[in-house]
């Protein structure tokens, strides 16, 4: 039985499969095919027609992810968004987001 805050999340899509390991509530390791770490995690959260299940964390894991789980989720979603936009030919590239000075916003009635 898994301790609280610890789990192994296994995902499979077709012939491809991977695992995300969570220890003390932190994502510490991910593997998808030959990818390891954050790159594997980002692929796994984009699986749309796969199967997922969880089980107890295996002993003696190797930590390959050191980022905060919130960063991982946001970065993964950003990458999925970029991939989706890149696949659509009817969408113009978006400019990079830059802070706009308040004075400019006020002049334009925003």
Summed up, what is this model?
The chain is of the alpha+beta class. The chain has helices spanning 38-44, 69-87, 102-107; strands spanning 7-13, 16-23, 26-32, 35-36, 51-55. It has a five-stranded antiparallel sheet, covered by helices on one side.
Largest sheet: 5 strands, antiparallel
The order of strands across the largest sheet is 4-3-2-1-5
Are there runs of 5+ residues with pLDDT below 50, and where? none
Give the terminus-to-terminus CA distance: 55 Å
SS-based structural class?
Answer: alpha+beta
Kindly estimate the percentage of residues that lie in beta strands according to DSSP: 25-35%
* Elements, N to C (H/E): EEEEHEHH
How would you describe the shape? globular
Radius of gyration, in angstroms, nearest whole number? 19 Å
Mean pLDDT: 78
Q: Please report the total strand number as a whole number.
A: 5
Structure description:
The chain contains 3 helices and 5 strands. It is globular, with a radius of gyration of 19 Å. The mean pLDDT is 78. 14% of the residues are buried. Strands 4-3-2-1-5 form a 5-stranded antiparallel beta sheet, with helices on one face. With 110 residues, the chain is an alpha+beta fold.
């Amino acid at each position: 039985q898994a301790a609280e805050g610890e789990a192994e999340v296994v995902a499979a899509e077709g012939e491809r499969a991977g695992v995300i390991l969570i220890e003390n509530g932190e994502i510490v390791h991910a593997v998808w095919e030959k990818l390891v770490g954050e790159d594997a995690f980002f692929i796994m959260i984009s699986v749309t027609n796969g199967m997922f299940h969880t089980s107890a964390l295996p002993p003696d894991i190797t930590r390959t992810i050191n980022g905060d789980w919130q960063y991982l989720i946001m970065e993964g979603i950003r990458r999925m968004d970029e991939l989706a936009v890149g696949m659509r030919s009817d969408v113009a590239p978006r400019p990079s987001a830059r802070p706009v000075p308040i004075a400019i916003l006020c002049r334009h009635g925003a």
